[in-house]
Design brief:
Layout (H helix, E strand, L loop, with lengths): L3 E7 L3 E7 L5 E8 L11 E2 L1 H18 L7 E8 L5 E4 L9 E2 L7 H9 L3 H8 L8 H11 L3 H7 L2 E4 L1 H9 L6 E3 H4 L5 E2 L4 E2 L1 H7 L8 E3 L2 E6 L11 E7 H8 L8 E5 L3 E8 L10 E8 L2 E10 L3 H9 L9 H7 L8 E3 L17 E3 L7 H27 L5 E5 L6 H11 L2 E5 L4 H14 L5 H5 L4 E5 L5 H20 L3
Parallel strand pairs: 1-5, 5-14, 9-12, 15-21, 21-22
Antiparallel strand pairs: 1-2, 2-3, 4-7, 6-8, 10-11, 13-14, 15-16, 16-18, 17-18, 19-20, 22-23
Bound molecules: adenosine-5'-diphosphate (ADP) and SN-glycerol-3-phosphate.
């Protein structure tokens, strides 16, 4: 057995290859950002071939910089930005359109039409999801409706659909495996999360031929082996797949019912493990599959925030207020407060609990005294306020009052944000020693499948808190600040272009 597990973490903005040892420690990593395309207002697309090329390059980089022989890799786990949709020709392997990213709003009209036909409850009752452009189903329909000749090709069985996990396994296996796992299938709006099958009625409504869809498998099993020419002469088992948010839940070892994690990446996603029970939300949370493991499926409740770290990237790239995302912390700490400024980053609409595809971003409370520092601070604070909206929904749906929140993801490295998060929630926040829990989850799933780790108990023993934050804010200040946020979101939703 090799000494390491390789996790491929294909996020919204970058790909990472992370090589873990048996203690879950990072032996080596390589990362590469890739291009985002914004062809129209609210649309977000990527080039699936560029993602594939970037994956090959980070694998090579991690192995060569770490001087690791590919033979030492016992298995590969894949975790991915979810919902992002690729449709490609099964004969040539060429995508027929850009990958439509989960954040993209180009299917808002399709969702509206389906809602007008009174179909929301049909989708919700089978998939646990809502009719929002976020999910893959309407994105597939959009590609079939808008790319010349696509529908005919799909009906002839010439096209394949995949989320990014499926695309990468297909490429790594030389086109021999067309698979996904339960956690990714659960995000398509086409998969029945209760009877665990592609739902014929939903496929017909959406006009998606079943022949396009991947086989749905557990999250931990050997799906295929790498073709040797993509892996330096080695055939390595690809043995774990999970959507990045479910993978982070697994990497945080939230194995027990009621355990919660929040990941601050491009977006921000809070998931609660609800065990073998699928909990139905009354407050705009999603019911989803956490993972399939040991012959069982575990479910989760999820709150999805569309814009979190990407608001910080916008400060960097759009407004050019900062040179790097971590620099936001320094600016935020230079002022005592945001001085009444609220920024609502509804750049692609709002997710949980509002589900408003047409909302767009806004800033409130500007005065002549507002400085760049206040603006940056208000942007960071918006991540914490959105998280509070989600936690309120989660506590109300689950009946559980949270005492501690496990956090991870790029923006969780921001100490100012984590302290403010703890303050505004009135809950302790714990960041583990490894903030790379998304990749770790996929590594764990792959390692379990090949016997690299024996069981979940062994994994739970590895988790350690790296830094803890405790609420220091006076309750009346907390309430007053949050009241301001609630008013700002409400006002944002009234204004429509
Ligand atoms: N120290 C920081 N403070 C605030 N935001 C940060 C910081 N470091 C990274 N980010 C943000 O986190 C995101 C990257 O996190 P990551 O977990 O890699 O995201 P993804 O998996 O979605 O690509 C970026 O949007 C970036 O702006
Ligand atoms: O890229 P992230 O880490 O923000 O995750 C994206 C989510 O999977 C979208 O559902």
């Amino acid at each position: 057995m090799g000494k390491y597990i390789l996790a491929l973490d294909e996020g919204t903005t970058s790909v990472r290859a992370m090589i873990f040892d048996e203690m879950g420690q990072v032996k080596q990593m390589a990362q590469k950002e890739f291009k985002q395309y914004f062809p129209k207002s609210g649309w977000v697309e990527q080039d699936a071939n560029e993602i594939w090329g970037s994956i090959l390059s980070v694998i090579a980089d991690a192995l060569s910089t770490g001087e690791i022989d590919p033979k030492e890799i016992a298995a590969i786990g894949i975790t991915n930005q979810r919902e992002t949709t690729v449709v490609w020709d099964r004969h040539t392997g060429h995508p027929i359109y850009h990958a439509i990213v989960w954040q993209s709003r180009q299917t808002a009209d399709i969702c509206r039409q389906l809602k007008d036909q009174g179909l929301e409850e049909t989708f919700k009752s089978k998939t646990g999801l809502l009719l929002d452009p976020y999910f893959s189903g309407t994105k597939i329909k959009w590609i079939l409706d808008n790319v010349t000749g696509a529908r005919e090709k799909a009906e002839r069985g010439d096209l394949l659909f995949g989320t990014i996990d499926t695309w990468l396994v297909w490429k790594l296996s030389g086109g021999s495996a067309h698979v996904t796992d339960y956690s990714n299938a659960a995000r398509t709006l086409l998969y029945n999360i209760y009877d665990l099958s592609w739902d014929q009625e939903l496929l017909e409504i959406m006009g998606v031929p079943k022949s396009m869809l991947p086989e749905v498998c557990p999250s931990s099993q050997v799906y295929a082996k790498t073709v040797s020419y993509h892996f330096f002469g080695e055939e390595i088992p690809i043995a774990g797949i999970a959507g990045d948010q479910q993978s982070a839940l697994f990497g945080q070892t939230c194995f027990e019912q009621g355990m919660v994690k929040n990941t601050y990446g491009t977006g921000c996603f809070m998931l609660m493990n609800t065990g073998e029970q699928a909990v139905h939300s009354k407050t705009g949370l999603l019911t989803t599959i956490a993972w399939g493991l040991n012959g069982k499926v575990s479910y989760a409740l999820e709150g999805s925030i569309f814009v979190a770290g990407s608001a910080i990237q916008w400060l960097r790239d759009g407004l050019r207020m900062i040179k790097s995302s971590p620099e936001s912390e320094e600016y935020a700490k230079r002022v005592e407060s945001a001085d009444g400024v609220y920024l609502v980053p509804a750049f692609v609409g709002l997710g949980t609990p509002y589900w408003d595809a047409d909302a767009r971003g806004a800033v409130f409370g500007l005065t002549r005294g507002t400085t760049k520092e206040h603006f940056i601070r208000a942007t960071l604070e918006s991540l914490a306020y959105q998280t509070k909206d989600v936690l309120n929904a989660m506590e109300s749906d689950s009946g559980i009052t949270l005492k501690k929140l496990r956090v991870d993801g790029g923006a969780s490295m921001n100490d100012f944000l984590m302290q403010f998060q703890s303050d505004i929630l009135g809950v302790s926040v714990g960041r583990p020693t490894s903030s790379e829990t998304t990749a770790l989850g996929a590594a764990y799933l792959a390692g379990l499948a090949v016997g690299f780790w024996s069981d979940q108990k062994q994994l739970a023993e590895i988790w350690q808190v790296g830094k803890a934050y405790h609420a220091e804010m006076a309750p009346e200040v907390r309430s007053q600040l949050y009241r301001g946020w609630t008013k700002a979101v409400g006002a944002t939703r009234v204004f429509k272009n």
